[in-house]
Every structure is written in structure tokens, then in C-alpha cells.
Write a structure and sequence with these properties.
Elements: E1 7-11, H1 36-43, E2 48-52, H2 59-74, E3 83-85, E4 94-96, H3 114-118
Parallel strand pairs: 1-2, 1-4, 2-3
Length: 127
Amino acid sequence: MSDVKPTLCLDFDGCIHQYSKGWHNGTIYDDMVPGFLEWAEQAQKHFKLVIYSSRSSTDVGRLAMGGWLAEHMRLWDGDPIEFTMAAEKPPAWLTIDDRAICFRGDWRVPELDPGAMRGFKPWNSRS
């Protein structure tokens, strides 16, 4: 059995950072999505946790995300959690993203209708 853990790609904005105001000039302004660190503590037993965002393409963006995460981790009293900040979207076993639709092999399903997709709202902007 291999000791290499598969990569789990985690979107930052909307999955880790609440992102309640959207991009908002690129600042990282919000709290952490509740339950994330508890979940990550368990997930790291099975996966390599890699954080990726549109911010990831620059050193400044990766440093901002890492600094924000470090601030939140300081208050964490659970086990240490290891995250990797990716510069580009990694090849991953699985991806968790608040703005994605799982493709299930059929382009004709209602959720892939272009009109339906235009009306998509992530969890943090639904009423």
C-alpha cells in the first residue's frame, strides 16, 4: 500500500474564506467558513490538502491567503494541519469548489442548461 496521499484541491474564496461580498477589490476581509478547520484536520489523514484560488497566480495572492490562514490557525486548538498553497491549479484526485457543477457524463441534464447556469448562485449569496 502506498503512503502517498492523493491531492485534494480546495478553493479558497467561498469554501475556506466566507467571501460574503465577492471579490471586493481583492481583499481577504471575511471570517473562515465555520467547521473548515475541524473538517481539514480529519481530511488531512486521507489527502494532501492543496489550496488554490484565482489569487494563486501571484506571490502576493498566495502570501495573502497564507497569512490569513495562519491568523486563523493561531486560534485553533486542534492538531496541526498542513496546507500547500498552489501557484496553479494542481492535478487533483478531487476538487472542492463553491462555483462548480459535477459533470456526470451527460450534457443534456438541466443543471448544464446555459440559461440555468447563468442563474447559478453560490451558497453564500442564496436567499
